[in-house]
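Progress report, Aim 2. The chain analyzed during this reporting quarter is listed below.
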Amino acid sequence: MQSDLSARQNILSRLADARVRTDALFKVVNPQAVYDRPIPERHRIVFYLGHLEAFDWNLLGHYGFELKPFQSGFDNLFAFGIDPVDGGLPTDQPSDWPSLAEVHEYNQRVRQELDRHLEGATLVDARGSFSLAGVYLNVAIEHRLMHAETLAYMLHQLPLDRKVHEAPPSVLPASRVGQKMVEIPAGTAHLGLPRGSEVFGWDNEFEAHSVEVPAFSIGEYKVTNGEFLKFVREGGYTDRGLWSQEDWEWVEREGIRQPRFWIKRGDDWFYQAMFAEVPLPLDWPVYVSHAEAAAYARWAGKQLPTEEQFHRAAYGSPEGAERLYPWGGDAPEDQYGTFDFARWDPSSVNAHPAGRSAFGVADLIGNGWEWTSTLFQPFPGFEPFPFYRGYSANFFDGKHYVMKGGSARTAACMLRRSFRNWFQPHYQYVYSGFRLVNN
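Predicted structure tokens for the chain:
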């Protein structure tokens, strides 16, 4: 257990590092593109420039320190993002937003005020547990790091000439991917976090509980671009029988005929990497919506895994004990997977053999979230955060599916086995792939 002083220093260091991470991300955007909207369903980039500090102010400043607002208009303007479920698109114009100078001035003032109050705040008690202010700060840090990922996939959709270019993606050495199914024996999946845990968790991660999981088999790797290309070429997007009614209506209405990250030129396929267009890397995981993943599973005669099946394959062992990570108890490091902002783009699904689970399943953490067939719902004993009641509860609507694992742009702190991500089924932009199971 860390001392209260070292724990305090650690969390403040994490805040500083998270700020550096998001500050650097906005530097990828050409100044003239800050008012662009790369994804039609989302806010303009300028919103996110103000949102991160507004969130910190509304949480830490308002709830944590009861500070008086100095720019309540911005506190409200930058408070909430958009969850594009209903199909309605925002109609605001660039002129509706403040100038960059005003936003930067607001951001600087927020940081100065919060940092001044954090200096004297009790963040960790003598037992090493987080105080309420410490919980708020953890929420602020992970919220910022979540946006470091969501902003990355938003900027992925920004035209190449609207970005400050970095090096194109490197191709890590990898052998040929030979997909096979791995047998997972029946066993217990221990989901969630216990109350009073020294590990920070969001409200949807509680309460800890166990689920008995019957035997099943699961794909050794995520489905690759090369495998999904066969589905495309064999008419998967035009076969009505592979899609639910709602998903088929979406495919037809939007004219969906390929993954969002793919580009077709004549008979050739390319991949829209962050800073270049490259020939389609066949051994990278395919990134698709839940609807596309489910259609592929039907085409392959298999299913998407449930949340507890993913958990069992990733963290379980033949002996019955569960691991902290698929590879064991070591903290996430480069040899175990592609995560913690290691790359802008994915790597081969078989590039990290050291990251395999006890059952031999590869690439479970990082390199792309993985869709499950589990609707995002509360665990037994769920209690919403009193200071952020809608964080999870607003999405227990039967329209969002659980994702597990993490992507190349997922921070290491959110690779814990209890972490749950979720999204609606028709959203193609997120860094999420899938693997298949046989029940």
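The first helix runs from residue 4 to 26. The CA atoms of residues 231 and 296 lie 7 Å apart. These observations will guide the mutagenesis work planned for the next reporting period.
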